[in-house]
Amino acid sequence: MDNDEPLEPETKDEGDTVSASQSSDETLYCEAEAPTVVEKEKPGQESSETDLEIEDTEKLFTTGQKELYLEACRLVGVVPVSYFIRNMEEPYVNLNHHGLGPHGAKAIAIALVSNTTVLTLELADNCIMEEGVLSLVEMLQENYYLQEMNISNNNLGLEGARILSEFLQNNTSSLFSLQLSGNNFKEESAELFCQALSVNYRIRTLDLSHNQLSDKAGEYLGQMLALNSGLQSLDLSWNHFYIHGAVALCNGLRVNVALKKLDLSMNSFGNEGAAALGEVLRLNSSLAYLDVSCNDISNEGITKLSKGLEVNESLKVLKLFLNPISMDGALLLILSIKRNPKSKMEDIDISNVLVSEQFVRTLDSVCAIHPQLDVLYKAVQGLSIKKTLFTWTNPMKLIQSYAEQQKISVLDFFRSLNPSGEMRMPVGEFRKAMIQQNKVPINRYQVRELMKRLDEKTGMVDFRSARAPRGLPSALGQPAVLSKAP
Known about the structure:
It is built from 19 helices and 13 strands. By secondary structure, it is an alpha/beta fold. The protein has an 11-stranded parallel sheet with strand order 1-2-3-4-5-6-7-8-9-10-11. A two-stranded antiparallel sheet has the order 12-13.
């Protein structure tokens, strides 16, 4: 948003300041000094989030950081963002959907050059274009504190990809997470990124979802994954990978030793792609999370995928939601886990599949061998309401009752599940401990009810954040809650 009015009243030195700043406006860095005299003035009525809020001007000018940002806004001709002023000394700054434009992004970048507190910067959907990206990468060449940046949905295109790839090839910053979803990246952009990431091992998390990457991009990505030893999480969902692209990508995955999380959901590589992934699972020992939801994988593809699961020792999460899988395919999946004594599988999502009671009994036998396993399916055919009532008894009530009988706290009960006695433990280990403990009669459905309180992104249970059911005070006044700790 342009602002033709200067933020502060003119002083007798302002002309000199303007002329100095105009000569340096072609670069990112602002050489103009912040005004030494600031008059307090109350605004009329704030019209939007991007209007500067001045309730107490003295509070706004307590640090040079804020003065620098205000001066930068004046120089590039934009209205300061009040949220940024209030939060520029916080580790997390969310400026998504603020309509910054390239000039607004430049002002933010100028302020962050010497900032040492902001670790995560969200700039999604701001139409910053390639000009704004250039300002950001120039800032990152000087800022050694920013670690995570989201510049999704900014229409960066090929030129933006070129700017970013050049930065990544020479990256000496602390940036390790980069979100680039929805930026109209095509094959040429993928080639640039893959060239950069073939030599850059600092980036650990990369999001390229909701772009227009197709089979040729799959070739580039496969070549990059064969060389890269730093990338741990890659999101390629909502692109256009078909059979050839998926197979090429898998060729790189076979020898990759670093990637732990891969999201390929909402593509269209079908059974041939699933077969290639099955071969990856036979050889790869690092991948722990794989999402291939909505990829037109049928029972034929599940057969090939299951062959890999029979020997894989690293995968913990497999999401197959919205694939045309029948109960027979679901049975193949769980039997492959049963045949693998070293399987680490914790979660399988086939939540669109209707199963039978026979499937449930088979799953019970599999879970007896792998108590950490949970399979999410749609429903059980013909299972009456009466038969399902017992599975939904509030598990916290059972735990609370046991704790009161033993005169201990619920927190003590949870802590006893962890051999180390610590307050946190991995989700899979927690599920296994809950199933195997014999103090409280609880089944895997009730364990799943407990796990619903967990943040699915962290993979850890923190007992300190769970609470007893409403109306049931925690024994000895000690609350206990389930959540996923960061």
